[in-house]
Structure formats: structure tokens, C-alpha cells
Amino acid sequence: MIELRTPAQIEQMRPAGRFVGEVLTALAAKAAVGVNLLELDELAHQMIRDRGAESCYIDYHPSFGASPFGKVLCTSVNDAVLHGLPHDYALEDGDLLSVDFAASVDGWVADSALSVVVGTPRQEDLDLIEVTGRALDAAIAQAQPGNRLGDISAAIGDVARAAGLGINLQFGGHGVGRTMHGEPHVPNDGRAGRGLKLRPGLVLALEPWFLHTTDEIYTDEDGWTLRSQDGSRGAHMEHTVAITADGPLVLTERAA
């Protein structure tokens, strides 16, 4: 069921959005050569405890997961692009790290992701992150009342195709509210002018993700981490966005 939030409820979602943005900012600053993925997860867990928030991931067990997730972050490195299960791995120079984080504050959920290069960057990784960010910006720009869901999807797909990237439709954006994943599903490609009419009160997590040279993925032996079929690297960007009468409101905006 698709739920619309009142202006007052959207205001109540702001603290969750701010908190998720603060955590991702702290994680991006912490990520460095030699830092273990489990250290990043513990930092996020400590911030959750300090804030009195709740993790959306630790007990999460959808049909595509092998078991309850058990951690509070998704940390996807290099050829991993989504649902990366934190494990005993120390970041190396040049690693491409994507971090996805969702939490509930006072009963409202926000969900966001970013990608960064640790240490010495490869230009192709910086380019991939930049394209993924532009796709997210294009999606947000289309989150206008009166537009259609396909306008958001088409905006993401147009940016990807212009950059010569493939587009995987298995995982995409989604509704957000009292739970992390709700209706509607927001594919990362589509046809403009088609689909659900966007109305004020709809809150969406928009999340383009792309791989360098493929759109095919497989599930790692850990039962969660999604990796590229050809070993190419991936980037993932996400914001929780409320559609208001005045246009899109990014609830998980991070400090510059």
C-alpha cells in the first residue's frame, strides 16, 4: 500500500533524516587506509546507541537474504555494489567503498547511501561516483507533484546511458516511512510520463547504482553482498526525499 504523509509527519521525519546524514558524514570521514569494515559498523552502532535510534538492518531478513543481516551498515567494496555485509577487512589504498545506512528515530525511518574512494583514487572510479551522483540529482529534480514515477526512473536511466553504463532493474528505490522498504518500487530506468502520479506526502528513497562495465550481479557466499559478474567496480548513491507542494525536500542532506 502506498501511504502519503501529512506536512506535520514530514516534519517529524526530519530528525531521522538528519541523523542518517550525520552518520554517513562521520563514516566517510572515518574511512581510510587500514580502517576495518567492522570498525565502521561499530562507529555507526555507537552513534545509534548514543542517539537512542534503532537500526533498520540488524534484524532485517527479506526473502533475498540468507539470514538476518546482523550488522547496522552495508559496506560494499570495489566489485561489491549493494548489501555488503561488514566483515573483517581492512580498507586498502584505492578501494571504492559504498556505505548504505538506514535508521529509525522516534518511529520514522530515513535511508541514504554514498560512495567514496579510500586513499589514492582511480579516475574511472571518481567518474563513476560523479555519474551516480548526477543520476541522483536528476531523479530528485523530477520528484515534483504532478509528475509521474516514470519521470524519476527515466531521469536516472538517461544519465546512465549518456555515460555508457548498463542499468540493472533488480534493485532500486522505494517508499520510506514507518518501515525501511515500502511501496512504490522506483526502478532506475523507465519511461517518462508513465506510472504513478506523484502527490505531496509521498516519501521515497531514490538510489541509483551502477557498475563500470556490466549490469549483471551475483550474490556472494555470505548470502548478502551483491557483486558484479565481471569484477568491475560499482558506486551507489541514495537520499530520502519527500514530495511536497513546493517540490522535493531532501531529508538526508549531508553537510558539505
From TrEMBL:
Cofactor(s) the record lists: Co(2+); Zn(2+); Mn(2+); Fe(2+)
CDD domains reported for this sequence: MetAP1 (cd01086)
GO biological process: proteolysis
Cofactor, how bound (note): Binds 2 divalent metal cations per subunit. Has a high-affinity and a low affinity metal-binding site. The true nature of the physiological cofactor is under debate. The enzyme is active with cobalt, zinc, manganese or divalent iron ions. Most likely, methionine aminopeptidases function as mononuclear Fe(2+)-metalloproteases under physiological conditions, and the catalytically relevant metal-binding site has been assigned to the histidine-containing high-affinity site.
Keywords, sorted A to Z: Aminopeptidase, Hydrolase, Metal-binding, Protease
Binding site for a divalent metal cation 1: D100, D111, E238
EC number: 3.4.11.18
UniProt KW Membrane keyword: no
GO cellular component: cytosol
Gene3D superfamilies: Creatinase/methionine aminopeptidase superfamily
Segments forming domain Peptidase M24: 11-245
Binding site for substrate: H83, H181
Class of the enzyme per the UniProt entry, highest EC level: hydrolase
Keyword presence, Hydrolase: yes
Residue numbers binding a divalent metal cation 2: D111, H174, E207, E238
GO MF entries: initiator methionyl aminopeptidase activity; metal ion binding; metalloaminopeptidase activity
Catalytic activity: Release of N-terminal amino acids, preferentially methionine, from peptides and arylamides
Subunit field text: Monomer.
Family to which the UniProt record says this protein belongs: Belongs to the peptidase M24A family. Methionine aminopeptidase type 1 subfamily.
Entries under HAMAP family matching the protein: MetAP_1
Function: Removes the N-terminal methionine from nascent proteins. The N-terminal methionine is often cleaved when the second residue in the primary sequence is small and uncharged (Met-Ala-, Cys, Gly, Pro, Ser, Thr, or Val). Requires deformylation of the N(alpha)-formylated initiator methionine before it can be hydrolyzed.
The protein's name in its UniProt record: Methionine aminopeptidase
